[in-house]
From TrEMBL:
Gene3D superfamilies registered for this protein in UniProt: Metal-dependent hydrolases (3.20.20.140)
Highest taxon, organism lineage: Bacteria
Signal peptide: 1-21
Domain (Amidohydrolase-related): residue spans on this chain: 28-312
SUPFAM superfamilies: Metallo-dependent hydrolases
Keywords assigned by UniProt, alphabetized: Hydrolase, Signal
Gene Ontology molecular functions: hydrolase activity
Protein name: Amidohydrolase family protein
UniProt cross-references to InterPro entries, sorted A to Z: Amidohydro-rel, Metal_Hydrolase
Pfam families: Amidohydro_2
Length: 323
């Protein structure tokens, strides 16, 4: 080998060695899981722009806003299409503006859905003032409410209901609704409020159209308003601790098992309301990320955003398209 060949060989060897020693840049961290708030409300003490700013700052990618006045939701949607998704609810108090329970409620909700102005029905309060029935189980089956379930069933829409399902008679009413209206996507606000996991499990095992949002249920254990209720205000056998989290922020074992078994039925939600919850929005998202992150990627993605996207799919005013 002559001197020139040796030089070329040496240069090649040095180049190969340098290439092998080159620093490989670290892989980019995975993008954080998107979180959609499947249940919040309009805040009377804020302007629409202020509330949207609060929601965006919490770290969510979208929110379902439930309100009895569709025009008020439209004001929030201005400039925020795809982030604010409208659901038409019912006024709980007589002095509240918007739609009230009565014979005209279901037809009005149906018209809004058919026009693409509302993507779902709810949150439907059970204890409307004045009460139409003496108990929650009977209220749920009142004719004006049944007409709403039928409208949701005919369109395959979400109907979200706030009701405490710890009472067996209330559980039976929910079972009847789910059975009689199988195309309605029944969402139990707060996953049945104080109901134990076995109650929700029975309903979900029996009826594939029963879902639960996790608003209030994912509050830090006993740490926020609405997380703990006076024991004497709840049905017999109900727990006064609404949150399903343990003090360390992990999910109680029975609830963890249920969330994994029915990961396609639960939805992350915050229930931002006019009380003290708005100031906790960022904490609620962070707490949920910690808790749901222990379930594994498939379950976390489903509960965080996938189930909400599926349930509200096809609505003209639905979530922004994603790659």
């Amino acid at each position: 080998m002559n001197r020139q060949a040796i030089s070329i060989f040496a240069l090649g060897a040095i180049s190969s060695l340098a290439a092998s020693c080159a620093v490989i840049p670290p892989a980019s961290p995975p993008a954080p899981v998107r979180y959609i708030d499947a249940h919040s409300h309009i805040l009377a003490q804020m302007t629409p722009a202020e509330e949207v700013s609060l929601l965006r700052a919490s770290g969510i990618s979208a929110a379902v806003i439930m309100h009895p006045d569709i025009a008020a939701i439209d004001a929030m949607r201005a400039g925020n299409a795809g982030f604010i998704v409208p659901a038409i609810s019912l006024a709980r108090l007589p002095q509240m503006p918007g739609l009230h329970l009565g014979p005209d409620a279901a037809p009005a909700m149906a018209r809004l859905a058919d026009a693409g102005e509302a993507c779902g029905f709810g949150e439907i309060p059970t204890r409307i003032v004045p009460r139409t029935e003496p108990t929650d189980d009977l209220s749920l089956l009142g004719p004006d409410r049944v007409a709403i379930y039928a409208a949701a069933d005919a369109r395959g829409l979400v109907v979200s209901m706030h009701v405490d399902i710890a009472d067996p008679k209330v559980e039976a009413s929910i079972a009847r609704i789910a059975r009689d209206y199988p195309r309605a996507k029944v969402v139990l606000a707060h996953s049945g409020w104080s109901a134990a996991p076995e109650v929700i499990a029975r309903l979900m095992d029996a009826y594939p159209n029963v879902h639960g949002d996790l608003s209030v249920r994912l509050d830090p254990a006993g740490g926020l308003p609405m997380s703990v209720q006076p024991a004497n205000s709840l049905p017999p056998g109900a727990t006064n601790v609404i949150s399903i989290l343990q003090p360390d922020g992990t999910i109680q074992p029975a609830w963890r098992d249920l969330l994994l078994r029915h990961a396609d039925r639960f939805l992350f939600a915050m229930d931002i309301t006019d009380e003290q919850r708005p100031k906790f929005a960022q904490l609620l998202v962070a707490t949920a990320r910690k808790a749901l992150g222990t379930l594994g990627p498939a379950a976390e993605n489903a509960i965080a955003h996938g189930n909400a996207e599926r349930l509200y799919a096809g609505c003209a005013r639905g979530f922004a398209a994603r790659d």
